[in-house]
Amino acid sequence: MKLTAHRPAPQPRADSVQRSSIYARDLFVEALAGVLQRPGRSALTALGTVLGVGAFIAVLGLTSTTASQIDARFNELTATQVTVKDSGGSDAAKVPLAFPRNADARIERLNGVTAAGVYWRVRLSADRTVRSTPFRPSDEPPLRTDVIAASPGLLNSAGPRMAEGRLFDSYHDANRQQVAVLGSAVAARLGITTLDTQPAVFIGNTPFTVIGVLDDVIRKPDLLLSVVVPRTTAEHIWGPPSDERAEMLIATRLGAARQVADEAAAALRPEHPDYFKSIPPPDPKTLRSDVGGDLNQLFLLLALVCLLIGAVGIANTTLVAVMERTAEIGLRRALGARGFHITVQFLAESTALGLLGGLMGTSLGTISVVGVSAAQQWTPVLDTGAILAAPALGLATGLLAGLYPAWKASRVPPAEALRR
User: Fold this and answer.
1) In the predicted model, is pLDDT for residue 164 greater than 60?
2) Measured between alpha carbons, how far is 396 from 244 in angstroms, rounded to an integer?
3) Is the pLDDT of residue 103 over 90?
4) Are 405 and 348 in contact (CB under 8 A)?
5) Can you give the residue ranges of the MacB-like periplasmic core domain (predicted)?
6) Rounded mean pLDDT, 124-151
7) N or C end of the chain: smaller count of CB under 10 Å?
8) Distance of CA 5 to the CA centre of its chain
C-alpha cells in the first residue's frame, strides 16, 4: 500500500486580503450622527461660521444697496449743483470782486439753470459781533457767527424752507436795504422766536431788520448757522470781499450741470473768462467706487475675523471629539477601519458643521440686507452668485478647520485606544 503525502492547502498571501472600504452614504450618516449627537455644542461651534458667512453676504448686499442709493442722491443733489469760484486770474490783486452786478441774471439765462447766486463771507473785526439788542450786557457772551453777503439768487439756489417770513429779493438788493435772513440756529441763540414784532439784529452797531428765518436748506447747510444780508448792502458797509474771494452757487436741472460749468465763465465775463474757475459735479462712478471700497474693506475684515473664530471653534470641537471618542476610534480600527477612513470620518463631521454654518449665515445675511433696506425704504440689491457661493465658503472653512484633528485621530494606535 502506497502512502501519498497530502500537502496542506496554500495559505492566502498577506497582500491578497481585501481591504476595508467606506461608502459615501455611510460616511454621510456617520457625519450627521456625529453632529446631531451633541446639538448644543454643534450649534455653538457653527456660530462663528454663521457670523462670518452672514457678514460676508451682508457686506456685498449692503455695499451694492448703498451704492445704488448714492447714485440716487447724487442725481438729486450733487448732479444738479455747480460752483463757480472768483479767482481773479492774473488781475486778482486789482479785482477783488470779479462777479458783475447782474451775475445772477447772466447765469440764469443759460439753458438748464434754475437758480444762481453770488456770496462771500464778510470780514468783521473782533468787536463787531451779532446781537439782538443795541448794547450787549457785560455778562452776556458775544455771539460770533458768519455773516454772508449774498445776491438774491443764492437763497433760491440753496433750496430753502422757511420757518417764518420771506427771503430778500432784487428790490432789497438794488436799494441796499438793511435786511437779514437768519438761520434757525442763529435765531434760536438770539432769542428771536417770532417776526410779528419786527425784530432786528445788530452786526457791530449796524441794525438789520429780520425778514425771514430759514428752517432748512437742500444745499449749503452752513446758511443755517449764518446771518445772510444783501450783497450790495454788505459792499456799501464793509466793502468788497477781502479775506476770501466770492463764489457762485448754481442749481441746474438734471443732466445740465457739466454743460453749465463749461459755459459759466464766458457767460459771466466774456472778456475775462479766466477770472473764474468752474467746479462741475464729481463723477458718480468714482464716488460710488470710493464709498463701496471703504465699506468693502471694513465689513470684509469683520467677515474674515468671524470666519477665523468659526474655524478655531470647529477645530477645537473636533479635537475634543477625537479625545472623547478614542475608544470608538480603537474599536473601528480593530474591526478593519484604516487610518484614511478615520480621517475622512472626522473631516466629514467638521465639513458638515461648516456647511451648516454657511447655509445659516447665508440666510442671516440675506435677511439682514432685506431688513435694513426695508427700514430705510431702499431697494435691496443682492448678488445671486455670492449667495450661491457663500455656503461653499462655510464648507471650505469647516474642511480646513478639521484637517489637523482628523489627522490626529488617524494616528491613534488601535491597541492603546482599546485599552482606554
Assistant:
1) yes
2) 60
3) yes
4) no
5) 42-263
6) 75
7) N
8) 94
Cβ(174)–Cβ(254) below 8 Å: no
Contact 346, 322 (CB under 8 A): yes
Contact (Cβ atoms closer than 8 angstroms) between residue 49 and residue 398: yes
Would you state the pLDDT for residue 272?
92
Find all residues with CB under 8 Å of 350, minimum gap 6, and list them: 314, 315, 318, 398, 399, 401, 402, 405, 406
Grid cell of 325 as nine digits: 471618542
CB count within 10 Å of CB 74 equals 17
In 175-221 the beta strands, taken as DSSP E runs, fall at 179-183, 200-203, 206-217
Give the separation between CA 71 and CA 379, rounded to whole angstroms. Answer: 12
pLDDT in tens, 223-251: 999 999 999 999 999 999 987 899 999 99
Cell (9 digits) for 363: 440666510
CA atoms within 13 A on the CB side of 264: 34
- Global pTM? 0.55
Question: What's at 360, amino acid-wise?
Answer: M
CA-CA distance, 274 to 280, in Å (whole number)? 16
**What's the rounded Cα separation, in Å, for the pair 251 and 157?**
5
Half-sphere exposure of 376 (CA within 13 A, CB side): 14
Q: Cell numbers at residue 99, please?
A: 462777479
Write out pLDDT tens, residues 322-361: 666 667 777 776 667 777 777 787 788 778 878 888 888 8
Could you tell me whether strands 206-217 and 179-183 are parallel, antiparallel, or unpaired per DSSP bridges? Answer: parallel
